[in-house]
Amino acid sequence: MNKMARMATIFLGVSMASLGSSQFLSAQEGTEAPQRSHEVNRGDTLWDLARRYLIDPYRWADIYELNRDVVQNPHWIYPGERLRIPGGAGIPVQRVPADAGRSAGYGRGRPIPATDLSNTVFGTRSDQLLSLSSLQVDESVRPEIVSVSDFFQASLLVDRSEFEPTGSTARVIEENPLDLNLPPSARLHQDVIVHLRGLQVAPGDLLQTVRWGRGISPFGQVLESKALLLVTRTAADSARARVMDVFGDYSVGDPVVRAADFYLDPEAEHAPTDSELSGRIIAFAVESQTVLDLYDEVFIDLGRREGVRIGDEFLVFSHLELSPALAEPGDALCVVRVVRVTESTSTAVVFKIRDPGTREGNPVRLSRRLSG
After folding, report:
1. Buried b (16+ CB within 10 A) or exposed e, 173-196
2. CA 45, 108, 115 angle in degrees (round to 5)?
3. CA distance 195 to 234
4. In this structure, what is the dihedral angle of CA atoms 158, 160, 164, 169, given to the nearest 10 degrees?
5. Domains of the chain, first to last
6. How far is it, in rounded angstroms, from Cα 331 to Cα 313?
7. pLDDT over 60 at 105, yes or no
8. pLDDT at residue number 168
9. Cα 108 to chain centroid, rounded
């Protein structure tokens, strides 16, 4: 056996051993998968575990409730602790009632205790990469109709007055022992100082950093989402916050607004509607864009006052159609799903496409709504 063959054999043997015999047999023979659990690594947080296993980071409380015998304080978990994950074998998935109410800024049904959340990361996160090969996923997860990220990262076309007052990002708290000339941009899990400028917040509240883009008359101005912040401390007219998600180039000086509440019934299903609600595409979210692709965003000239809701689906037709009401579904260029709604406009994401030739001004017609 030559040298390369020996190396390949050793690599294959190590890889199979890392899977473990029980996992391998389960995959090959269809035996019952083991109960899902996670051994805490250095740098883990409940927020990260909820994102990894449950798709939704806001379900960190579900993991905490299931592991109260191990975790005394949800903001402190320690390397070596083994946590059970909701949804595994013999473990129920706990759901928060839709009417649980807004608690400390997380929106209806997604409460978080208003306590000091500082010092919850125990070090660098690079060692987490070593544990990825041992993750056990023993169930399929139904894709969310509109995810938390879909909601918060979407751009808006809105009247600027709807977002007053606004704070601003004063500085990034950066460990810089070598005194390097680092850019004033913030990354995931970093802490920042926010100048509130009249915003009333408390520990546990969610803030969103934004940047104003081009104006589109008469609808307003494009508001681009940059990051999601979790307030950890407040003092006078300032707050310390942790960067929980990043959607763009988030930098010092970017405006900060209170994050909107978001809750969508996980059991809701789409159903066809007889509504003849129709409108048109105002513009693409990206100004220079000429051809639409999957997951691109568009602005529609219909909003809350016309009854548009998050999750609504619209068919987009060609300019050649005399009336959207007379067009057949098979004539649609693409299908878009609403992820944000303002008083007079909606932001929708392309999730089905037949013809990329969609243009600004194309007519749209409501086709499906969430039931339940």
Report:
1. eeeeeeeeeeeebbeebbbbbbeb
2. 45
3. 10
4. 100
5. 28-94 (3.10.350.10), 150-258 (2.40.10), 269-371 (2.40.10.340)
6. 15
7. no
8. 93
9. 16
Q: What residue spans of 190-319 are helical by DSSP H?
A: none
Q: How confident is the model at residue 24 (pLDDT cuts 50, 70, 90)?
A: very low
Instruction: Assign 259 a pLDDT band (cuts: 50, 70, 90).
Output: very high
pLDDT at residue 202, rounded to an integer: 92
Backbone angles phi, psi at 37, to 5 degrees: -150, 170
> What sign does the CA torsion over 49, 55, 61, 67 have?
negative
pLDDT score at 35 = 61
Are 271 and 371 in contact, with CB atoms under 8 Å apart?
Answer: yes
Using an 8 Å Cβ cutoff, are 194 and 169 in contact? yes
Q: How distant, in Å, are the alpha carbons of 52, 143, 234 from that of 107?
A: 21, 21, 20
Task: Report which of residues 354 and 90 the model is more confident about.
Answer: 354
Q: Measure CA 162 to chain center.
A: 23
Identify whether the C-beta of residue 232 lies closer than 8 Å to the C-beta of residue 189: no
Residues 6+ apart with CB under 8 A from 273: 366, 367, 368, 369
Q: Which tokens belong to 268?
A: 């809701």
Tell me: the pLDDT tens digits for 161-173?
A: 887 778 999 988 8
Residue pair 169/252 in contact (Cβ under 8 Å)? The answer is yes
Cβ atoms of 309 and 277 closer than 8 Å: no
Q: Establish whether the linkage from the previous residue to 183 is cis, with ω within 30° of 0.
A: no
Other C-beta atoms lying within 10 Å of the C-beta of residue 353 = 19
Q: How far apart are CA 231 and CA 112, in angstroms?
A: 11
Lowest mean pLDDT among 39-48, 100-109, 352-361: 100-109
For residue 335, report the phi and psi dihedrals to the nearest 5 degrees: -120, 135
Element (H, E) at 4: helix 3-19
Closest CA to 343 of 307, 318, 294: 307
Output the furthest CA–CA distance in the chain (Å, rounded).
74
Q: In the chain, count H helices and then E strands.
A: 5, 16
